[in-house]
């Protein structure tokens, strides 16, 4: 009978649950978000409200919204307590009054932080998954060509990979960002084009090890085509360490996106990502801790989930690596 306690404590399960919760939050974000993420709730009275804040939203017919602590009707006028002072509005100016709450507070523009955090989850996780997918694809293609190709091709691709690895990755990313500008597409391409080299070396090493196995020599002896041998036998066996690498790469991509957004080359406002939320938070960090803590916590949980998934997958796909 399996040890259920060990199962529940396993890295793979904990990482999988965390990853599933984050993906669910990203996918269901438009329905879970209390308000539109780009909506400004009274830039004066609604900015930097702490978590758990609530109030009354007074919708005006000219499209503006005023946040009030209290509202009292007085005949044809409406008195509202806003910014610690009472002021009066003509009833004809008001279209509606309704209660609002901000569970995670608001940012310096008066936008609901919870809504922007959910919107940012979609962007950040999309960037991370695209980066990992392109990185694994490019790395696998180059590694397969080097590992199974003729010696001259192996030497050429290996020297190219080693040459690119000699440059600091941050330098390459910032160079691409400076040449192409910011934005989500730039982040994906910059991180993918500078991150495939380690995957290529891993795939090459695995294929070079596998091509000397008896089953490969027997398949070649009976005339199995090289492409079929690669796709049906060699790559599936070589992908076990690549899958582990993919999980770990996801966490790296999320951290890199946050760093690029902090430097101004990432996702551009008003679009939200976890990295851009952190970048916006630096202007208000001294008096509003929540604008940085919650996006930072989201990134930390995502990186933790990726790390636990990688450890759990390594323990199961590469049992010889344990102990």
Description:
- The structure is a single chain.
- The chain folds into two domains: 53-102, SH3 type barrels (Roll), CATH 2.30.30.100; 113-321, MetI-like (MetI-like fold).
- The mean pLDDT is 83.
- By secondary structure, the chain is mostly helical.
- Helix 4 packs parallel to helix 7 and helix 4 (113-148) crosses helix 11.
- It is built from twelve helices and six strands.
- Helices cover 60% and strands 12% of the residues.
- It is elongated and about 95 Å long.
- The relative contact order is 0.14.
- Spatial arrangement of strands, main beta sheet: 2-1-6
Q: Stretches where pLDDT falls below 50 for ≥5 residues?
A: none
Class based on secondary structure composition and strand pairing: mainly alpha
Strand/helix succession: HHHEEEEEEHHHHHHHHH
For this entry, what is the oligomeric state of its chains? single chain
The number of distinct helices, counting runs of at least 4 residues, comes to 12
Compute the CA-based radius of gyration.
26 Å
- Binned strand content: 5-15%
Q: Quick one: CATH class of the largest domain?
A: Mainly Alpha
End-to-end CA span: 23 Å
What proportion of the residues is helical, as a percent range? 55-70%
- The CATH homologous superfamily of the largest domain is named MetI-like
**CATH-scheme architecture of the largest domain:** Orthogonal Bundle
Mean pLDDT: 83
Q: Judging from the principal axes of the Cα atoms, what is the shape?
A: elongated
Number of domains: 2
| CATH fold-level assignment of the largest domain | MetI-like fold
Q: For the report, how would you describe the main beta sheet?
A: 3 strands, antiparallel
Q: How many strand segments?
A: 6
């Amino acid at each position: 009978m399996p040890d259920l306690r060990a199962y529940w404590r396993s890295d793979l399960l904990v990482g999988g649950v965390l990853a599933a919760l984050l993906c669910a939050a990203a996918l269901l974000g438009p329905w879970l978000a209390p308000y539109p993420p780009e909506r400004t709730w009274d830039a004066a009275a609604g900015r930097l409200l702490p978590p758990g804040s609530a109030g009354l939203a007074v919708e005006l017919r000219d499209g503006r919204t005023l946040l009030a602590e209290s509202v009292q009707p007085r005949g044809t006028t409406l008195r509202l307590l806003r910014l610690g002072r009472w002021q009066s509005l003509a009833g004809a100016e008001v279209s509606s009054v309704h209660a609002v709450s901000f569970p995670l507070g608001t940012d310096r523009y008066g936008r609901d932080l919870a809504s922007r955090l959910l919107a940012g989850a979609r962007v950040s996780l999309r960037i991370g998954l695209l980066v990992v997918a392109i990185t694994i694809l490019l790395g696998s293609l180059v590694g397969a060509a080097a590992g199974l190709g003729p010696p001259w091709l192996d030497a050429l691709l290996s020297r190219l990979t080693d040459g690119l690895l000699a440059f600091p990755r941050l330098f390459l990313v910032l160079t691409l960002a400076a040449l192409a500008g910011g934005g989500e597409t730039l982040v994906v391409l910059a991180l993918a084009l500078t991150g495939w080299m380690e995957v290529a070396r891993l795939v090459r090493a695995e294929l070079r090890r596998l091509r000397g196995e008896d089953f490969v020599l027997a398949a070649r002896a009976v005339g199995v085509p090289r492409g079929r041998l690669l796709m049906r036998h060699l790559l599936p066996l070589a992908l076990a360490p690549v899958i582990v690498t993919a999980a770990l790469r996801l966490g790296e991509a999320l951290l890199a996106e946050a760093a690029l957004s902090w430097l101004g080359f990432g996702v551009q406002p008003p679009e939200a990502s976890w990295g851009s939320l952190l970048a916006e938070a630096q202007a208000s960090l001294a008096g509003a801790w929540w604008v940085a803590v919650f996006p930072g916590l989201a990134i930390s949980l995502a990186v933790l989930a990726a790390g636990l998934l990688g450890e759990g997958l390594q323990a199961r796909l590469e049992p010889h690596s344990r102990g």
